[in-house]
Amino acid sequence: MTILRLSCLIGFLITSSTVRGDELAAQLTALAEAHKGKVAIAVRHLSTGQEFFLHSDEIMPTASLIKLPIMIETYIQDHEKKRSLDDMLTLQSEDKVPGSGILTRHFSAGAQFSLRDAVRLMIAFSDNTATNLVLDAIGLDATNQRMAALGFPQTRIHAKVFRGSTTSLDPERTRKYGLGSTTAREMITLLTLLHAGKLGTLEATSAMLGHLRACEDKDGFPRFLSPGIKVAHKSGAVNDARTEAGILELTSGPVALCVLTTQNEDQRWTKDNAGLLLRARAAQVVAEYFAKATPEKAGLNRIDRAVEAAIQRGDTPGAVVVVVRDDKTIWRKAYGQRSVEPKPEPLTVDTLYDLASLTKPIATAAAIHLLAERGQLQLTDPVAKYWPAFAQNGKDDITLEQCLLHTTGLTADNVISDYADGREKAWERIAALKPEVKPGTRFRYSDVGFIVLGEVAARVAKQPLNQFVEKEIFAPLQMTDTLYTPTQSLLPRIAPTGKRDGQIIRGVVHDPRAHRLGGVAGHAGLFGTADDLARFARMLLHQGELDGKRIFQAKTVQQYTQPHVIPAGADAKPRATPLLRSLGWDVDTAYSSQRGLIYKPGTGYGHTGFTGTSIWIDPSSRTAIIILANRVHPHDKGASIALRREIATIVAEQMSK
Predict the structure, then answer these.
(1) Is there a contact between 154 and 185 (Cβ–Cβ < 8 Å)?
(2) Which helix (H) or strand (E) holds 322?
């Protein structure tokens, strides 16, 4: 991702209207007024946009909170190839300064470690020596220049830590604010951009949030929160100031919070310091406010029992469930375990799943429709127009539309041995396949048809499918955790699936054909989070646009999602209603379990994935249900149909009240 000047976006975020919950405003204002010192608070729910600001534009000291912008500048410089996170740093005796002294107290002069490790020490342990080494590597004023370019002129580092008298960039500002300065509004807007993936690559965004989640300060924001709430945060403290900013990962969605205090009467270095307690109480108030049960949420609490029962049955080790209605996340929760082998790991809502066949509508069909919208292909075109070798053996008239509808007459899956000799040979063998029945006469769900579509999209776009969808769809939608072939740094957040060659599969596609194709295919290979899929669903419910960014024209969304009657085939069992698919989505077939028992057939659309993933979108109620599970972990013996059906039924019942 290119790092650009974000003035327009910043301006929008800063000037957008504030929606104040009276109870939230009253409680936070009361906390601030009771405190003996100056207080600034800013809150933004990153899913709903609800905000609260108190003295949020007043310049305040940061103490070690300024290390968050320093981390961001370091990762951006790595992206711009000005520095590398793998650069090795050497500790010298003169580098050692007091404060969170991992390096000062426990490392000898001459010790070497990477810039990446120094950043981790700076954020997780607030190590001051590590901070100064990072500043030496990136340049002392680089952070200030970057923050100003991004639209944060008051977010500034003034000097190296404990080196203010000799390294100050602004002696007057150093005297007034100490190590750094910011405003509460600038800080939560910076966190908003970080969370949205606007400050670097997908990998960098994940790494930076990981550093913040590792922050060892548990006496601030995390102090009074329930153990299940994850917090990605950074704090700071000097004699008369206590500061903290971060993202609370709540069931209702992520919330950015910043609390700045200065001129504090209580300057004790104890756990019951008034400024420290204010930070913790503010986080508690915010979490409880956004978690308050509404009649709607009370009804959705039955989802808890449904998922827990599925886990007890052994259907899946865990699941993430997100429900969106009226453009708001009304349910967002992780249950159970991410992994049970080789060791148990608790599941978190930001877990990346192997999306399996959700790849078909989210990546491949989306790519085909976008190329059609741009006039680079037509859905009624034969596949052979773009892939001439495909015309052999009676396939010359098979169209892109038939591939999207699964009416090509092709087999569901060609033999795995077709993929044994590399990608090029695999394409030759796919091109040589014979239809099982006359194209257009039978619906048969076919991975092969979407493998073909993925190849056509790559040929027309003149770039690999993964590069096209990540650049043209996922990045504009801020789907920062949706990608093919995840990097090693993402492995801790990825849910493992089954086994291959006796080893647990993690971070590598489960589907054997996609695996043989290098992890990038039209039918499978995509990884992603429930939050990202919620953004995709919201975009479709907004007729192709989200947060001011248009991905598809409205007529393209209609073409992409409207139902088509498809032929069941001569040997199909009789049905009271016709089979329905859209050009990319399931509408009403035997694969529609995720619709539940109440949503009316033919009015919504969705898809499932073999690994246990599913999505259902009901435009009539403006609702989307995302369920991500790894039911194939660890032995490919789980199940997800019953859970999908039950959750969708619960949601539909609640939405109809």
Answers:
(1) no
(2) strand 318-325
pTM: 0.66
Q: How confident is the model at residue 196 (pLDDT cuts 50, 70, 90)?
A: confident
The answer for residues whose C-beta is within 8 angstroms of residue 284's C-beta and 6 or more apart is: 223, 224, 225
341: exposed, middle or buried (C-beta count within 10 Å: 0-12, 13-18, 19+)?
Answer: middle
Helix (H, G, I), strand (E, B) or coil at 274: helix
Residues 241-281 pLDDT 10s: 999 999 999 877 789 999 999 999 999 999 999 999 999 99
- With left for phi above 0 and alpha for psi between -120 and 50, is residue 104 left, alpha or beta? alpha
For residue range 374-430, list pLDDT tens digits in order.
999 999 999 999 999 999 999 999 999 999 999 999 999 999 999 999 999 999 999
Residue 324 to residue 540: CA distance in whole angstroms: 12
Burial class (CB in 10 A: 0-12, 13-18, 19+), 5: exposed
CA distance 304 to 302: 5
Q: Measured between alpha carbons, how far is 278 from 284 in angstroms, rounded to an integer?
A: 10
pLDDT of residue 296: 62
Nearest to 150 by CA among 7, 342, 263, 352: 7
88-90 and 230-238: which strand pairing? unpaired
User: Which contiguous run of DSSP H or E holds residue 260?
Assistant: strand 253-262
- Percentage of the chain surpassing pLDDT 90? 84
pLDDT per position as a tens digit, 324-377: 998 888 888 899 999 999 999 999 889 999 999 999 999 999 999 999 999 999
Torsion sign (Cα): 526, 532, 535, 537: positive
pLDDT for res 251: 77
Q: Are 531 and 350 in contact (CB under 8 A)?
A: yes
Please, what is the angle between helix 366-373 and helix 447-461, to 10°?
Answer: 40
User: H helices within 125-258, ranges in order?
Assistant: 128-138, 142-150, 164-167, 171-177, 184-195, 202-213
**DSSP assignment of 31-79:** HHHHSSSEEEEEEEETTT--EEEESTTS-EE-GGGGHHHHHHHHHHHHH
CA 238/CA 174 separation, integer angstroms: 13
3-state helix, strand, coil in the chain (%, to 5): 40, 20, 40
In the chain, the amino acid numbered 317 is: P
From the number of C-beta atoms within 10 Å of its C-beta (0-12, 13-18, 19+), residue 312 rates as: exposed
Alpha-carbon span 404 to 639, nearest angstrom: 26
